[in-house]
Each structure stands twice: as C-alpha cells, then as structure tokens.
Amino acid sequence: MPSEQTAKIRDSDKWEIPSDWEVKHFEDIADIDKESLNGNTPKDYVFDYISLSDVDDDFRIEATRQVFSTAPSRARRIVKKGDVLMSTVRPNLQGFSLIKNDVKDLIASTGFAVITTNKCSNEFLYHYLFSSAISKQFYQLLVGSNYPAINSSDVRKLEILLPPFPEQTAIAQLLSTWDNAIAKTQALIAKKELYKKWLMQNLLTGKKRLKGFDKDWKEYRIEELFEKVFRYVEWNDESLYKLVSLRRRYGGLFERGDYLGSQIEVKKIKSISHKDFLISKRQVSHGAWGVVALEFHDRKVSDEYDSLIVKDNNKLLIEFWDWFSKIPLLSHYAFLASNGVHIEKLIFDFDTFKRRRVLIPPTTEEQTAIALVLQCADTEIQILKTKLEKLKEQKKGLMQVLLTGEKRLKL
C-alpha cells in the first residue's frame, strides 16, 4: 500500500511507485529565496530586474536594467545560474524558468520564488514543476480571490517524486530534447508569421507585384463591389436554428449551438450563405468580419450582422477580398463608419462604409495569384502549428510516464 504522502502525488493507481524513488518536500532538496539584497548594498548597485510584467505567455523573461537606489522596494531576491524561477501569483501566470545562461546580479520581484536546488538535478526539478502532480498541489495551496497566489513558505511544502540522480539526469535530457524541438518550431512559426505579414503588407497594397502582372490597380467605391442582402427567417418556435458568431481579430466564424425557436429571445434572425462577407455591426472595429466558409452555409445570425455579396465576379474575387479585408486601411474605414460614444458600443453603418474607395488588382487573375500566395504562406504556418501541438502532446505523454516511474529509462 502506498503511503499517504505518495498518494498525494500519484496520478494513477495502475502502477506502483518504484522502490528506489523517494518522496521529498521542496525544503528537503532546495533552498527557497535563499539570497536577498541587504542594507549594505551600495546605492549605485546595477542589476537586471524582473517582475511579472516582464513575463510573456510562454514564460519568457525580458529583464530591465535597474540601480539599487531606484529599484522597487520589493526587488530583493537574487537569481543565479542554475536556479529555477517560479511564478507564485495568479494561476494564468503560473510558470517556471530554468536560468541556464551566465547571469550577473539578476533580481526577482516578490511575484516569484527563487528555488536553488542542492540535492537533485535542477533540470529534473524544472521539468517536474510542469507535471500534473505539482499543478494539483499548487492550486490547492493558492490563497486570495482577486490575485490568487502561493506563499513562498508554502512552496517549501510542495512534494516531488525523486528517482536516483542518474535517472533524474537521463529524464531531464530526454525531455529537454522535446523542449528544443518545441522551441525551434515556435521560432520557425514566428519567422513564417512575420513573412506572411510582410507579404500581406506588400501584395495587398500593390507595393510588390507578382511576376507577370504590371497593369495599374483600379479604384472602386465599395458600393460598386458589394451589395447588402437580407435573408430573414420565417420564425417558428418549433424549428431548430443553427446559430453562429464571428470572432474578433479576423478569427472567423464559430458555432454557437443549435436552439429551438422558443429558446431564442430575439426572434429576428437571418440566414447566411457560402461566400457572403459577414460583418458584426457591434464588433467590426475589433476585426469581427470575414468570408463565410462552406461549412457555415445556411447558418443563422442575429440582426446585429450584415451580409454582403460581390456584385460582379469579374471585378472582385471574394477569396482575394478575404485577405484584403485584413489590411489596416479597411479596419480604419470600418471604424470611421461606426457610430457611438465608446469603442465597445459602436454600431457599424454600411451606408457610410460603402462610399469609401479601395484600390484592387485590375484582373481576377492577379487577385487569384495573390490569394494563392497568401494561402500557401498560411498553410505552412498551420502545418507548423499542428506539428507544435503534436510535439507538446508527445512531451506531455512522456512526462506522464517518466516523472511517475510508470516507465523507466535504460541507463
């Protein structure tokens, strides 16, 4: 039978914890917030200072230079090479960073615990901090409502399952291999996204032309390209309606769910069609518009949406407009065509918007070519993102079996 201690950190009853593994508290294997600045520190002491505001979603840190005399009063914890930096404030900012590089005079704010290992592999501890066993303990120890946090004294109470040191090293090396692959893929995605942004800025404005196209772009009023359509639904409380909405920041459509007419409070809804250009009248200033994909054909939206259709497919291809609508100029036009006293209460007016003028390629052949180039760039990014998620899932699976002793590495 496992002890009460081991039961706290086990994720399953399908295997026994190896007999040569130990359950330890953090205070048994590491020092927490061991070193701090003191009153003898000279006033012109210069260091790199990090606070929670310097941490991004992936827990990457951008330190800022400070001097002791101007540093925040709580900037006291010294971080050295090999230390593990642990965020203790707010679950959404929970994260960990292993200080691998040579650092000099790095100081952390009170939003972190600085963990200095002395009886285990710091690399192993770093990976273990991402395990579900630690996550469960972390959330159990959170205190506070507006800004939940874990006290540094409670960090000492966290439990860790420790294999023999050689196995710790082997596990950490294997998981680091996945970390490196994940980091490289993330860097490649960032590079590809920058390139796609550059393509959009240049191809969609005519600053750069694709080979074989040199005719001047044509100017049209938007009302020459689009017309608004109304497909109001004949209401029936017994009918089932498939509702959709638009995400902000050009995030596209998403399903809201299927509802009987009797369940819907507002009875005035419309049908949308494949290749409509759909606009959320209340959210368009935040990028809530886009072309309706085939999978959303004949879905329903409220009267808070406008549906536009292309008047002449020889002038404009909707596939091109799908990309063109994402340029800053179009967002600016949408904002100017929205009325209200606050950005969250603006209402889009198509009659104002349609008088704006746009420059687009003179032929559908060039529009098609531009859309294809951008689609290829986007597809490359999506493939990389799929690869990234697969790598993350693989690492998660490895952690599940390696950090619990379910699977052992051959040393």
Compact overview of the structure:
By secondary structure, the chain is α+β, with helices and mostly antiparallel strands. The protein has helices at residues 4-9, 26-29, 122-128, 132-141, 152-155, 165-203, 222-225, 318-324, 328-336, 350-353, 364-402; strands at 22-25, 30-32, 46-50, 64-67, 77-79, 84-87, 96-98, 106-108, 112-117, 159-162, 218-221, 226-229, 240-246, 253-260, 269-271, 277-280, 289-291, 300-302, 305-310, 338-339, 347-348, 357-360. The strands form eight sheets. The chain has a four-stranded antiparallel β-sheet. A four-stranded mixed β-sheet has the order 4-3-8-5, with no helix packed on it.
> Can you tell me the CATH superfamily of the largest domain?
DNA methylase specificity domains
Total strands: the figure is: 22
Helix % is 25-40%
Which CATH architecture of the largest domain? Answer: Alpha-Beta Complex
Radius of gyration: 28 Å
**Separation of termini?**
28 Å
User: Main beta sheet: strand number and arrangement?
Assistant: 4 strands, antiparallel
Strand order of the largest sheet: 2-9-6-7
Number of helices: 11
- Whole-number average pLDDT? 87
Shape: elongated
What is the C-level CATH assignment of the largest domain? Alpha Beta
Structural class: alpha+beta
Strand content: 15-25%
Low-confidence stretches: 1-7
For this structure, the CATH topology of the largest domain is Adenine-n6-DNA-methyltransferase TaqI, Chain A, domain 2
Tally of domains:
2
